[in-house]
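Long-time lurker, first post. I've been practising inverse folding by hand and with some scripts of my own, and I keep getting stuck on stretches where the structure tokens seem ambiguous. Below is the full token string for one chain I'm working on. Before anyone asks, I'm not after the true native sequence, just a reasonable design that respects the backbone. If someone could post their per-position residues I'd love to compare against what I wrote down in my notebook.
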């Protein structure tokens, strides 16, 4: 059903064409240092969803705001166009992934344009084109030359549904599900290509503290994922199997080690499984690393504790992971919760060797052992029952034991693993390597790049394995027959540097223009989902650091500021096709217009918060835009009766109401600009919407001053233009302004925000006090309302109280003769100030309060249909004056 209001379809189409014709959003290559605003580019799935619309409205609004602030703004868009979904869609439709992908891009690009997103489309990149993925291959070679590429047999995460390998970061949750299809992930051993991100683990971790413009949550997720731990490696001799190294962060507890544990896929466990039925059964059928409780099987072997010389039993245990530490550990049930649970289950001794710090740290008595039968004591403390180390604190004991023990050494362990980029799929960047029987794996030379994909073959598994003609090649080193690598790259390689390609998207000599990248990067404001915290955002940081080291980039971080936007929900649930709760952005654009959708999303919540989509909220937003349109059109048509019949150029004196509206216009500018700077669009938009409401009330209650009214409309349009750009342009033109509002200057004001907030607080409190008095006293028809400002001495007393740190405030106040002369009144007010010192805050001065209340009196008059008289203390009745305080004038209502 069509909606009443302005013709949004006509307005939006008109201005989208005008922006394109004028190349409003194009950034020339000679721009010195544009403000770089970027949203995470989308996978072209076919249609925009509400998450896309919210993400890109955020970046578009901020880019438009920065442009109005006078910045050159780089705001590009592209397509994360490789990936398994396109391959699967092509198989289902018996087409090819390329055609499917470009059809989706055409659809989504049209939707983006219909939303009014101001992109520099001259810089568009599409990762599935040879002109882009050639540089993926070029970068792979550079990483290879830098020693950051390795091919090896590895236990990998295999998704049986997607039929491909997954990086650790793509395995989600305790259930270890595929990030794309939620299928349980299996372990396989395959030859894989790895990028050695672990070489940069320390810098990736330590530089997190410098990312002050990133959310704390994302920074902590990266810290946890990198997972650096300091500890010791210590060698245990296992009967019949030689030395096995264990990593521990608590070597101070080694005297309490009562068993040794190895992972189910540890080489010793595999060897035992060939001859020991119990171990075989456990390794192949019972081990469950994701189970609720640890489990394991005794091997009959013993390990020798290198510190005590004692023998402890060896278990194969599923809580030990081969890719964490060394795949083997000394277990101390008294001081580790997981070890405690296992020992309790298996009946292994629990021996405490750390006690809590005593209350008297200088006492010579070694503290008693803690009770560890029910639960482990996991804190640091004092070492007990540990021979020569007894009595040491945990930290000192760790240092001493490591130094004293043969085969022990300090060590650092990481959770982070090298990035396996091999994917057994067609629709990705071919890894530029060939396999030669004589030379081994050889990189494809730069001059032979790109290695382009062959025609798509609709088959099971990896279609490239069936591309026999494409696989056949010659060795770049010896010229002998060779075979191309059939794995393609993880698509996160594409997105790890795409932001650099926007700087010079058509460059044929290099992936990016280095001088321009050094001028334009890093991205000033990046926006995207928090789900990429330990994938795309981590990989991008890694790539940037490598490019700084190998290619001369001046910066080592890609994104200065990051905003992780919240989800758009429906009735508290994430929108998804499977739940059938998807709201179509295109329907909203068709029915209400793009500006309505954009404005509703931005006003509904702060960008990083989730919010519920509301059809009533959309309708309310549309009604607001219609009212604004009507207000501007009525003014332009001369349908608003102005003071003196003026047009804005006429010399008409301003009254108190005019002053109030002028002040509120300045207030909106002062607050909205600061909120746009902080990307808190909902607060900025509330200012703009409240200003429109004030202007409508102004027109209804008085004959507006021409200049005040027109400036108010002008400011409201400009404040809304970043979020509602089409109507903003239409109304800008209606007001008779030249050029695009997209290129207009942001409004300015000399008023500061503190003053604005004090004035507003004064007016709000005064109106509430009037309401309370009328309500409590049951006054139905007040004859007059008197508002009396506090005497000057009270403002002076308040200022002294706020600045004072004296214990006796009243003495300090009475040292001022003009306050002391007030006698009992001063003493009483001083006592009130003393009692409420923690809650005191600055107010406007007496004259400023008087002026502000006179200007706002019309609001009270309109609400209560009674005249309002604002008086200074010197002109009012003393009994009323006595009740007046700074920021809280006295109220006297005459019935």
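-- Answer (accepted) --
I ran through it position by position. Result:
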């Amino acid at each position: 059903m069509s909606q009443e209001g302005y013709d949004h379809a006509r307005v939006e189409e008109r201005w989208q064409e005008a922006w394109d014709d004028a190349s409003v959003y194009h950034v020339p290559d000679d721009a010195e240092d544009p403000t770089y605003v970027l949203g995470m580019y989308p996978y072209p799935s076919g249609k925009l969803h509400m998450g896309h619309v919210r993400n890109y409205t955020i970046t578009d609004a901020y880019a438009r705001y920065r442009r109005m602030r006078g910045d050159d703004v780089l705001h590009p868009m592209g397509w994360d166009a490789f990936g398994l979904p396109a391959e699967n869609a092509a198989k289902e439709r018996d087409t090819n992934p390329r055609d499917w992908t470009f059809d989706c891009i055409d659809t989504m690009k049209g939707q983006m344009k219909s939303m009014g997103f101001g992109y520099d489309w001259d810089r568009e990149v599409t990762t599935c084109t040879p002109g882009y993925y050639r540089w993926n291959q070029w970068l792979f070679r550079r990483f290879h030359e830098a020693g950051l590429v390795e091919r090896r047999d590895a236990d990998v995460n295999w998704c049986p549904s997607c039929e491909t390998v997954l990086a650790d970061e793509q395995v989600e949750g305790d259930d270890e599900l595929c990030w794309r299809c939620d299928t349980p992930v299996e372990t396989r051993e395959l030859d894989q290509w790895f990028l050695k991100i672990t070489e940069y683990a320390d810098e990736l971790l330590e530089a997190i503290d410098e990312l002050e413009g990133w959310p704390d949550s994302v920074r902590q997720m990266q810290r946890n994922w990198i997972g650096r731990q300091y500890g010791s490696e210590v060698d245990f001799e296992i009967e019949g199997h030689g030395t096995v190294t264990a990593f521990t962060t608590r070597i101070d507890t080694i005297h309490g080690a009562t068993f040794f544990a190895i992972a189910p896929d540890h080489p010793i466990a595999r060897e035992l499984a060939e001859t020991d039925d119990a171990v075989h059964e456990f390794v192949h059928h019972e081990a469950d690393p994701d189970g609720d409780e640890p489990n394991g099987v005794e091997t009959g072997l013993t390990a020798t504790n290198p510190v005590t010389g004692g023998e402890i039993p060896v278990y194969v245990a599923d809580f030990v992971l081969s890719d964490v530490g060394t795949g083997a550990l000394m277990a101390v049930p008294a001081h580790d919760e997981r070890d405690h649970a296992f020992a309790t289950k298996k009946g292994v001794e629990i021996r405490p060797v750390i006690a809590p710090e005593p209350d008297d740290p200088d006492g010579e008595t070694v503290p008693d052992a803690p009770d560890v039968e029910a639960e482990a004591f996991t804190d640091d403390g004092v070492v007990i029952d540990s021979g020569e180390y007894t009595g040491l604190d945990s930290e000192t004991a760790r240092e001493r034991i490591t130094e004293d023990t043969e085969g022990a050494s300090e060590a650092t362990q990481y959770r982070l693993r090298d990035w396996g980029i091999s994917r057994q799929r067609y629709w990705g960047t071919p890894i530029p390597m060939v396999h030669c029987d004589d030379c081994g794996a050889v990189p494809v030379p730069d001059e032979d790049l790109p290695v382009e994909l062959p025609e798509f073959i609709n088959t099971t598994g990896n279609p490239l394995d069936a591309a026999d003609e494409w696989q056949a090649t010659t060795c770049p080193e010896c010229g002998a027959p060779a075979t191309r690598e059939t794995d393609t790259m993880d698509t996160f390689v594409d997105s790890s540097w795409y932001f650099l390609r926007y700087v010079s998207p058509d460059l044929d000599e290099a992936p990016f223009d280095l001088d321009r990248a050094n001028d334009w990067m890093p991205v000033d404001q990046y926006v995207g989902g928090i789900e990429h915290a330990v994938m795309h955002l981590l990989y991008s940081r890694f790539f940037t650091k490598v490019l700084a080291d190998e290619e001369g980039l001046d910066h080592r971080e890609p994104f200065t500021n990051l905003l992780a936007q919240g989800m758009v929900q429906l009735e508290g649930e994430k929108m998804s096709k499977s739940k059938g709760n998807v709201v179509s952005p295109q329907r909203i654009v068709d029915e209400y217009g793009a500006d309505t959708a954009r404005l509703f999303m931005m006003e509904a919540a702060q960008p990083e918060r989730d919010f519920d989509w509301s059809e009533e909220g959309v309708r309310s937003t549309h009604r607001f835009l219609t009212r604004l349109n009507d207000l501007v059109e009525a003014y332009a048509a001369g349908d608003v009766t102005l003071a003196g019949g003026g047009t804005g150029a006429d010399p008409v004196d301003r009254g108190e109401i005019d002053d109030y509206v002028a002040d509120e216009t300045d207030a909106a500018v002062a607050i909205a600009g600061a909120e746009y700077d902080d990307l808190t669009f909902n607060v900025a938009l509330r200012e703009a919407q409240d200003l429109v409401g004030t202007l409508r009330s102004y027109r209804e209650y008085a004959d507006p001053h021409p200049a005040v009214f027109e400036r108010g409309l002008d400011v409201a349009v400009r404040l809304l233009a970043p979020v509602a750009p089409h109507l903003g342009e239409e109304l800008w033109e209606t007001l008779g302004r030249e050029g695009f509002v997209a290129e207009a200057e942001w409004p300015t004001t000399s008023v500061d925000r503190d003053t604005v907030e004090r004035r507003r607080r004064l007016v709000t409190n005064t109106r509430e006090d009037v309401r309370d008095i009328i309500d409590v006293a049951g006054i139905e028809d007040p004859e007059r309302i008197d508002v009396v400002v506090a005497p000057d001495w009270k403002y002076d007393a308040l200022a002294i109280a706020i600045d004072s740190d004296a214990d006796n405030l009243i003495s300090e106040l009475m040292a001022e003769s003009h306050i002391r002369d007030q006698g009992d009144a001063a003493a009483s007010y001083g006592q009130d100030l003393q009692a409420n010192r923690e809650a005191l805050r600055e107010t406007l001065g007496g004259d400023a309060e008087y002026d502000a209340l006179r200007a706002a009196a019309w609001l009270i008059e309109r609400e209560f249909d009674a005249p309002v008289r604002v008086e200074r203390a010197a002109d009012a009745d003393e009994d009323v004056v006595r009740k007046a305080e700074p920021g809280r004038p006295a109220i006297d209502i005459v019935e």
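A couple of notes from the structure itself: The chain is about 40% helix and 15% strand. The longest strand covers residues 149-159. Happy to go over any region you disagree with.
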